[in-house]
Amino acid sequence: MRAFRALLIREVWSLSVSPFSYVLLGFWFLLNGIFFAYLLASEPIRADVDVLPQYMFGSGVLVWLLLPAFPPLLTLRLFAEEHRLGTLEPLLTAPIRDIEVVLAKYLAACVFFLVFWAGVLLQFVVLGSFGANLDWNLVLSGFYGALMISLLFLATGLWASAWGGNLLFAAAGGAALNFLLLFLPVLFDQQGNPLQGIAHAMNIPDMVDRGFTVGLIDSYALLYFPLLAGLFLFLTWVRLVSRRWVP
User: How far apart are CA 79 and CA 236, in angstroms?
Assistant: First the structure.
């Protein structure tokens, strides 16, 4: 347990002092800030400010373009860069279990990604301080939904990062997988499609738009995201274990 805590602290510190992390953070804040300002000036938000969380945490096109891409960019250095620099093998031979390595790196990424969404939440706090009559149940529910999706995408990004030292593959592969998880079920969730039932059960935009962003937290969604994230963490562990036989 001591080795796990030490690795977790090391990974959080490494992300906290990495210039690349702050470039990602700055770019994220810039794009979300521009989108937030644009929405405030739009007619639907002027008519009803309560729909703002739906755009910031769910229905906004910019959100769905950013959200699948940023977690793999954050996680690419956790395994892929260590593999490229040759520091992964000493870590895997250290007196710490492989599953602890996976969990420490994943939790470090989760802690740091909280800062990404905290900056978005801060915009609502500032807006409320200027007298906007916000429904905080909608804001916090939407925030929670976006956070759950982010934790899933960090797990997929970590799995992509574990496949080798190619940083481009780690980033592009993780983002591609996230886009597939988002939009492939949407394509099959059509009337008359034999796979509609399965696709509907995996339709993340539908879970968000019909649930979290309107203040409804479904127990199915609460299980779906952690279980799917757990599956990709398990696959990451399998990949690390398999490296002992297949580099």
Answer: 10
